[in-house]
Amino acid sequence: MDFKRGLHDGLADRSTETTRLHTATHLLHEGLRRVLGESVEQRGSNITVERLRFDFTFHRKVTQEEIKRVEDLVNEQISKGLAISIKKMSVDEAKGMGATGLFESRYDENVKVYSMGDFSLEICGGPHVMNTRDLGKFRVIKEESSASGV
Questions:
Q1: 15-37 tens-digit pLDDT
Q2: What is the Cα gyration radius of the chain?
Q3: Could you give phi then psi for residue 37, rounded to 5 degrees?
């Protein structure tokens, strides 16, 4: 899926815009999991100042209705103005809390876990805004398969 906002972490740079879009990937990931099911897993991302691409596993094409539900869910979290907090902990502690992450990746002994209210809890090393309200309007502009099941 390609998304547009009205390095290791998939960022082309660390500008304000890529930081916003990177933060939005967390809301998007959780939105997809809530609409399509918990089998959805991130497989990568690519973020530039113009857009974010979010690769994830799913067994079929996402419908327009599902895309709309994901957009609405993400925009609802943005409008809530959720504070974004960070805690450092072990991978086992993060898993025990229910944090999502690319667990087949190699993490250091301690990881950063970002939470956005009670909506998103994810292991990440990238930059983030301080509040979801900083993201502005979220909109899906394209959805397509890049590989079988992705």
A1: 999 999 999 999 999 999 999 99
A2: 14
A3: 120, 160
Distance of CA 55 to the CA centre of its chain: 10
Torsion on CA atoms 123, 127, 133, 135, rounded to nearest 10: -110
The Cα 122–Cα 113 span in angstroms is 5
Instruction: Say if residue 106's pLDDT is above 60.
Output: yes
| CA distance to 18, 72, 74, 107, 111, per residue, from 13 (Å) | 7, 28, 23, 22, 22
Closest CA to 127 of 17, 3, 42: 17
Residue percentage of the chain with pLDDT more than 70: 91
Share of the chain above pLDDT 90, in %: 72
What residues pair up with 115 in beta bridges, in sequence order?
A: 85, 121
Paired sense of beta strands 110-116 and 120-123, if any = antiparallel
Three-state secondary structure string covering 17-49: HHHHHHHHHHHHHHHHHHHHCCCCCEEEEEECC
CB-based contact 8:125 (threshold 8 Å): yes
